[in-house]
Design a protein that fits this description.
Elements (H helix, E strand, L loop, with lengths): L1 H15 L6 H4 L18 H18 L1 H11 L1 H24 L6 H16 L1
Helix pairs in contact: 4-5
Length: 122
């Protein structure tokens, strides 16, 4: 039933809707800024690194909710376990911060990348 209603609405919009060709309406919307380049440009690897880090820390933050629910039952054991969990998360966070993953400045990224490659070669 849902597929029939969806198909009906799309068909109705296509049949009844206006078709006004306008070059301004055909360009992609980028927050009011005139787009430059093509849509096939590559994203910087930094975008993906930040996205992965966000997902990693977001998923780890989910573990805080069940811990808060059972905290009174487990008492000191739960506190020590969550303290160790948060220390490991923060250690990872400070590591990626030190490596420059969160830095979006181009010059600083190139410098850190060169230093990192030099450290790896040694």
């Amino acid at each position: 039933m849902g597929a029939v209603v969806a198909a009906l609405l799309v068909t109705l919009a296509f049949a009844v809707g206006k078709r006004v060709k306008n070059p301004i309406k055909d360009i992609p919307y980028e927050c009011g800024v005139t787009p430059t380049g093509t849509a096939k440009e590559r994203f910087s690897i930094r975008f993906y690194l930040v996205a992965m880090v966000f997902i990693l820390f977001d998923i780890e933050a989910i573990f805080l909710y069940p811990w808060a629910v059972v905290y009174r039952d487990l008492k000191l054991f739960a506190f020590i376990e969550m303290f160790l969990f948060l220390v490991l998360i923060l250690a990872g966070f400070f590591y990626i911060w030190k490596k420059g993953v969160l830095s979006w400045a181009e010059d600083e990224w190139r410098y850190r990348s060169a230093v990192w490659k030099k450290d790896k070669a040694v």
